[in-house]
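ARCHIVE CARD
Drawer: 12
Card no.: 0347
Subject: one protein chain, sequence and derived structure
Cross-reference: see card 0346
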Amino acid sequence: MRKWIYAIVLLCGFPLLSRAQSLDEIIRLAQDSTILAFQSRYQFEYNTQHYAQFQALRKPQLEFRFTPGYQRIIADPDRPYVYLRNFDRFSTAAKLRLSQKVTGWGGDAFVESQALWSEYFGRDINNRPRDIVAVPFSVGYQQSLIGYNPYRWEKMVEDQRMETARKELNYQLHRIAEEATIRFFRLACAQGKLDMCLRNKETADTLYAIAKEKASIAMITLAELRSLELQRLNAANALLSARGEEQLARESLLSYLRTDAIPSGARLTVPTHTKQILLSDEDVLELARNNSPALQKKEMEITEALQQQHKVRREQGVKVGVDLSVGMQQMSNTFIGAYRDPQFFMLGGITLSVPIIDHGAAKKGVAAASAWKAARNRPFGKRNAPWPRM
């Protein structure tokens, strides 16, 4: 009969032993299921997709644009030099454009092909019912000559923002691991205390039973029996308190993990040794500088402040831009004629913008950008990042 009892106990206890959790498994569960882990991973995923979008926009872009239009002209019939009177104009423009951002110079280069079809309806159109303009091929470049290069600044800011997100995720995962470790050992200590209280209770019950038998034959005094009874009662109270502490520690860990992966009765596997870490003061400071998300975020804010300051300083005065394009073009009243014998053309334009009256907006913008930069000036020594030369 005793063998059957032992077999039942082993079979019932085997699932509990198989569900024992180690520290590494608890940390893995915490980094997968805690609320902070979900928030950190979604934030990192957002920054990753935003950076991927930024990189995609810096690659060659192919765009097709189709623009239909309608125009109604009402002219004065008493003015003979108006050669088109009272007509409707329907037009359609189609353009296929391949563009690329030139990061080093801060401009946009493009290759495009376009066609424009215009149809006129009305009584007095002077035998000009249709215009078709075709540009089979053209190459162009646009850039601001006096200004700031936004592409190089954007590249630096986006790289630092992505690095900040990566360090922030690692930092949050380490925080999760630290909190899970604290709650793990709290539960492990509570389980150890519960086991000790169970042994003390069993020992007190055994001693009390033996003393009770001896008291029946007057081998021990009544005072000794009452002392053992008091020890038995104290052991029962300690066991009850230990069970409450173990239950609280278990619920604390399970609520943090947001799972029931550690059922009641399952035992934790406490690691027998820890990894030895030997670091000097200089190594600790260097690791803190390289892996601190707060420092990386501070550097990103400084870069953004420098970008804003450089932008408002360059844009407060005269602005000059250039637009150049060369290609082939032809005009006819048929599609075949528009693409037959195209003529070479070259276009160039310079845009000059001179602020005359802005009520001090440019000066106030420079002052605001300087104040923003000063407010975010780094307090972390002289670890400067290489700013782009403009």
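Annotation on reverse: The mean pLDDT is 80. Residues 254 and 260 are 6 Å apart (CA to CA).
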